[in-house]
Structure formats: C-alpha cells, structure tokens
Amino acid sequence: MIKRIGVLTSGGDAPGMNAAIRAVTRVALNSGIEVFGIYDGYRGMVDGHIEPLTRKEVGEVIDRGGTVLGSARLPEFKDPSVREKAVEQLKKRGIEAVVVIGGDGSYRGALALTEMGINCIGLPGTIDNDITSTDYTIGFDTALHTVVEAVDKLRDTSSSHHRCSVVEVMGNRCGDLTLWAGIACGAEIVVTAQTGFDEEEVLERLRELDLVRKKRHAIVLISEKITDVHQFARKITQTTGFSGRATILGHIQRGGSPTPSDRVLASRMGEKAVDLLMQGIGGRCVCIQQNEIVDVAIEEALSVPRESRKQLYNLFERLV
Ligand SMILES: Nc1ncnc2c1ncn2[C@@H]1O[C@H](COP(=O)(O)OP(=O)(O)O)[C@@H](O)[C@H]1O
Ligand SMILES: O=P(O)(O)OC[C@H]1O[C@](O)(COP(=O)(O)O)[C@@H](O)[C@@H]1O
Ligand SMILES: [Mg+2]
After folding, report:
1. 232 lines ligand 1 (CB under 6 A)
2. Do 28 and 51 form a contact (C-beta atoms < 8 A)?
3. Has keyword Transferase (predicted)?
4. CB within 10 Å: which end of the chain, N or C, has fewer?
C-alpha cells in the first residue's frame, strides 16, 4: 500500500483550499499514510520546498481563506525537463503520489506528472467554476457570497441616486459567477461570454428600464475580460437617464472565510482523493455530480464542453 503522499495548491487560490488540505492530510494520516506539504504549487515541487504535515499543522485552518501551502503559477512546468526535476525531488523523499488542488491548468500539470509515474489526483479549487466535469468547484460558493454581499450594498446607494452600477465579476471566461450572482442579487442585466456584449443593445435596455419601467436603479453585472467597465459607465451617464458608476470587485472575490458548503465540499473531495490514491489510482480528478462525489479521468474533465446555462439565463430574464 502507498506510504507517502504530497499535497499542493496551484493556480489562483480559492477559499476552501485549506479545508481540502486538512481533509487530505487527516484522512491520509488516519489511514497510516504520511503526508508532505508541497509549498507554492509546482514551484515548491521543483525547488524541493516540501515538508511533512502533521494533524496539528492542519488544525485551525478550516475557516481560513487563501492557502496555507501558498500557490503559484509556474509556466515552465510545461517543460518536461523541469518536471523531471520535480519528479526527482519527490522520489528522493519517497513521495509516491500527489493531490493537486487547483484549476484546469493545474490539472494539466497533474496529468503530465501521472504520465511520468507519479499518480496524481486533481481537486477542483477555483472560484471560477470553470471545471466542466464538476457541478461546483471549491471556492465558487464563497466567492458568490462575496459578490452578492457587495452588489447588495451597491444597490442601496444606486437606488438613492438613480444610478446604474456596472459591476465587473471574475470568472476567467466562465460566466457562472456572474449569472448566479445576477439571479441572487436581482440584477437587471448580466453580460457574460455566453450572452455576448452588444453595447448599444444594453444601453437601449437601460433607457427602457428608466423611462418605461421607472426603475430607481439598475445593476449590470459583467464578466471580466469583456469590456472596459469604467468607459461603459461613462456612456451610460451620457446616453441614458441613469448616471453610471463602475466597480471592479477584483481579488476581494478570492478571499474570505469559506462558506460551510465549500468546507463540506472540500472535505468530501479530499477524502475521495486519498481513497483513490490508496487504490493505486492516478490521472483522475474528483467531481461533484448531482450531489455525488465521483471521479473522472483528467483528460475527460479537460475536454467536457461547458454546459449551456440557457435555462438559468431564461430564468434570469423572467425575473427582471
Ligand atoms: N500544459 C501544462 N503542463 C504542465 N503544467 C501546466 C500546464 N498548464 C498549466 N500548468 C501548471 O499549472 C499551473 C497553474 O495553472 P493556471 O492555469 O495558472 O491556474 P489554474 O490551475 O487555477 O487554472 C501553471 O502555472 C503551470 O505550473
Ligand atoms: O490572480 P491573477 O493572477 O490576477 O489572476 C486572475 C484570475 O484568477 C482567477 O481569479 C482564478 O482563476 P484560476 O482559479 O484559474 O487561477 C480568475 O477569476 C481571474 O481571471
Ligand atoms: Mg484556470
């Protein structure tokens, strides 16, 4: 049976990563497996920044945002000779397998390592919810709470001043955070990669909300990387009855204490990762599908097309 495993966090951090590290560590230790923390993602693997983790070291972290192991982006990890160094560092310490907590990029690294003889299991740690094989990623629920709390506050001030708040939401080409927040906040308009952005159409809709629907305020949620929200807010002021103000929520969305849902999801997924490694399985990632914790091949997870959210967009429109 496997004796030593490593755990790392990679890519953008996400609330709940600590709960996942804790679950992996405790479940493994309670099964007689030694656990090593690999610091700063694949960088620590290459540089040998690897330390044993004890039960106590993962105590008092379940409620903390960020990741106690640190995270990093290391583009050079795509180079096989760099990965060779990482494999050597693991072998030197007798680490046979690794749990990689991160997003799609981290999964590619995990797959490449598995192909080099180190069994890896991926856990979806990202606020973006952009891993298509899982219904939810660890961190999405917490980020959603953060967005909703911020937009609720913006609505208070917007309606006092007959304003339109344009809010830029993270998601890296995945509109889930924007759409879910739009429904939860009762926004007037959501713009994502899936809806597309026709500036004139949105301005016309805002004029209608003002003149015909007599709205006191309007909230427009826009996914990042679609348009310059400050410029767009200026156009709103110039061409509609609302004065426009833009807010970029930015990295605030990545922090904060994980919600209970994210903590439970991370714990369930962490357990599954260790169970798979104990069976000698690698190259797979853990998903939640219809509230069941399951595993799929990383290759498959990376190729599943993004599910259409058409029904939710339709619901959104029917709620305005
Ligand atoms: N094709 C790849 N092969 C090997 N490693 C990769 C590959 N793509 C990404 N990685 C590693 O995973 C890290 C995190 O990926 P990134 O896309 O930045 O974040 P995320 O995992 O959150 O999507 C990268 O910095 C790199 O070290
Ligand atoms: O922290 P950085 O490097 O500015 O990156 C910002 C990006 O990271 C994210 O917050 C999270 O993305 P990943 O989980 O894929 O790393 C995206 O929403 C955003 O586009
Ligand atoms: Mg990613």
Report:
1. no
2. no
3. yes
4. N
Q: pLDDT tens across 76-86, in order?
A: 999 999 999 99
Hunting for tokens 């826009």 — which residue is that? 222
How big is the chain by its Cα radius of gyration, in Å? 22
Give the span between the Cα atoms of 36 and 205, in whole angstroms.
55
Q: Which of 193, 187, 197 is nearest to 151 (CA)?
A: 187
Query: How far is Cα 101 from Cα 109, in angstroms, rounded to an integer?
Result: 11
The Cα–Cα gap between 210 and 217 comes to 8
- Among candidates 159, 260, 276, which has minimal Cα distance to 216? 159
Helix extents (H) in 30-79: 42-47
- Examine the residue annotation and report whether 141 is marked as an active-site residue of this protein: no
Query: Does the C-beta of 12 come closer than 6 Å to ligand 2?
Result: yes
Query: Phi, psi (5° rounding) for residue 45?
Result: -70, -40
User: Cβ contacts of residue 268 below 8 Å, gap of 6+?
Assistant: 23, 288, 293
Mapping DSSP to helix (H, G, I), strand (E, B) and coil, where does residue 271 land? helix
The residue whose CA is least distant from atom 13 of ligand 2 is 12
Q: Which two tokens stand for residue 24?
A: 């992996």
Does residue 218 contact residue 27 with C-beta atoms inside 8 Å? no
Q: Is the pTM of this model over 0.90?
A: yes
- DSSP for residue 37: E
